[in-house]
Amino acid sequence: MITAVVGVLGTRFAPVLSQRISARQRTEETRAAEQRRQFEERRTVYPAMNRPHASSTRSFGVGE
Description:
The chain is mainly alpha-helical. Helix content is 91%, strand content 0%. It is rod-shaped, with a radius of gyration of 27 Å. The relative contact order is 0.06.
């Protein structure tokens, strides 16, 4: 009797559990894609921001 109840409950809840797992995975993939996009954006912006600073430190003899 217990085995039958567990089997029926497992059959009934399997689609719900599968849907929640899929939704969580999609959310994680979206978050990871957003983090990659932000990283790439920072990667392109930082050198542009540091260019003026780099030229001024060379004129002061810093790092030589």
